[in-house]
Design goal:
The chain is of the alpha/beta class and about 270 residues long. It contains 11 helices and 12 strands. The strands form 3 sheets. A 5-stranded mixed sheet has the order 4-1-5-12-6. It has a 5-stranded mixed sheet with strand order 9-8-10-7-11, sandwiched between helices. A two-stranded antiparallel sheet has the order 2-3. The chain is globular and about 55 Å long.
């Protein structure tokens, strides 16, 4: 982090980059407000999750904190169900969305994305050893298989497209999805690889298992409004700084690989 902080002056210069036209107004409004509003579910570890004290922590929470600090703004994280995140962005209720959001063509036609800041993919979580060798979506394409996915997520789109014969159950959040899986009402959950690995690691007593490699490759980015070219330029430069200073690698190692933070939420 120290190396990144030394580049604060450079970041301030980037904020001053001139982009002519209406696109400057969005960033100007944020700066005048003195507050950066970031939409997250707060229920997507390790991207965002509440610790034992009720405070939001996580990979993208830390990213938002650094960005707000470097812009000299107060950070306000707005907790929103995943299915309503992009709608809230369009309606101006938040300034950006950071919530394990996969960059897809359909989403990109409605909003701008900065990044990707990491690459993930679809995986499964199950209690059945029968699915432990799954490495292709076709392995699950059977009418007898019941799959739960997060409502409005790219996982829902993935299952409908790649596993159309399976029966799909929609959950409003991951707690509900895991509960359906745990009680045997579904055979498996399809979600991002990091989410499946996290749940299996943190709750070994539930007897949940996941596969070693994801079934797809998906870029994760930051969603921004359509008419915010200047703000998008700022966020892209911010991500590039995190990358070139090695800060992004350090954050990903801590949140996705080390497990050092798990005790603070369990």
């Amino acid at each position: 982090m120290k190396q990144f902080i030394r580049l604060s002056a450079l970041f301030v210069l980037m904020i001053a980059l001139s982009v002519p036209g209406f696109s400057q107004m969005y960033l100007k409004k944020i700066l005048e407000r003195g507050e950066l509003r970031v939409g997250m579910t707060g229920t997507q570890p390790p991207f965002s999750i509440k610790n034992k004290d009720g405070k939001l922590i996580g990979y993208e929470v830390e990213m938002a904190e650094i960005l707000a600090n470097e812009m000299g703004l107060k950070l306000t994280i707005v907790e929103i169900p995943f299915a309503d995140l992009l709608k809230s962005l369009e309606e101006g209720k938040v300034d950006m969305v950071m919530s394990g959001m996969t960059i897809t063509t359909k989403r990109n036609m409605k909003t701008i994305f900065a990044g990707p800041h990491m690459v993930s993919g679809k995986s499964i979580l199950t209690k059945s050893l029968a699915f432990s060798d799954t490495d292709e979506p076709e392995d699950l394409n059977d009418g007898s298989v019941k799959i739960v996915v997060l409502k409005g997520s790219n996982s829902e789109t993935f299952v409908k497209k790649e596993i159309p014969e399976a029966k799909i159950v929609l959950g409003n959040d991951y707690d509900e999805c895991v509960k359906l899986l745990e009680t045997g009402k579904v055979n498996l959950m399809v979600a991002d690889y990091s989410m499946c690995a996290y749940i299996a690691q943190v709750y070994p007593e539930k007897g949940l298992i996941t596969i070693e490699k994801p079934m797809s490759i998906e870029p994760i980015g930051i969603a921004l409004p359509q008419d915010a070219a200047h703000f998008t330029n700022l966020v892209e430069n911010y991500l590039n700084l995190l990358l070139v200073t090695g800060t992004l690698d350090e954050m990903q190692t801590f949140w996705f690989n080390s497990g050092d933070w798990v005790s603070s939420v369990k």
